Amino acid sequence: MTFSALAWLATSVFWPLSSPGTPPVETTAVNVVVTNLVSDKATLKLYFYNVKANFLVRNHYTLLKYVKPAGRTKVVYPIQLPPGEWAIALTQDLNENDLVDRNMVGIPTEPFALSNNVKPRFRIPTFDDCKFTVKGTATTVAISMK
Q1: CB–CB of 94/113 below 8 Å?
Q2: Per-10-residue mean pLDDT for the chain, 146 residues long?
Q3: Is 24-144 assigned to CATH 2.60.40?
Q4: Are 109 and 60 spatial neighbours (Cβ–Cβ below 8 Å)?
């Protein structure tokens, strides 16, 4: 191999002419507004789902975001999400043990809420109960911890 061929090969590895992979995904601004926090100090965990079969399945969320309320009982969390159907489950970790504490039946003992303000009564909520649509224009999702 000649020196010029080696130089071209080396530079093409570090500075490719086109980027490999898929094109960037378009996203939409979503503002998640959470009100009535039980604690103005305990970490709020927002679990984002966009796969119906994964909804509320442990460690199968699409995104997990941690938010510190910083002395407030209302939090606005801006995020960019790809278009489609999404659902949010959130918990507030009152004892800061990084777990969703549950009773013997499996029901959370720490505050939790779901998008569309779904309040489970006699069954586990479904993705369809909690879903909202993200498309073109900015979206606001309001969730109350009560």
Answers
A1: no
A2: 46 45 79 95 95 94 95 95 96 88 87 94 92 92 93
A3: yes
A4: no
Give the tokens for residue 93.
């970790």
Q: How far apart are CA 86 and CA 91, in angstroms?
A: 17
Single-letter amino acid, residue 120: P
Identify the pLDDT of residue 23. Answer: 64
What is the distance between the alpha carbons of residues 140 and 146, in angstroms, rounded to a whole number? 18
Q: What angle do CA 53, 46, 75 make, to 5 degrees?
A: 145
Question: CA dist 117 to 81, 105, 131, Å?
Answer: 20, 22, 10
Q: Is residue 142 within 8 Å of residue 33, measured between CB atoms?
A: yes
DSSP β-bridge partners for residue 34: 75, 143
Round to whole Å and give the CA distance between 112 and 64.
15
| Alpha-helix residue ranges (DSSP H) falling in the chain | 3-14, 127-130
Q: What is d(CA 62, CA 117) in angstroms, rounded to the nearest whole number?
A: 20
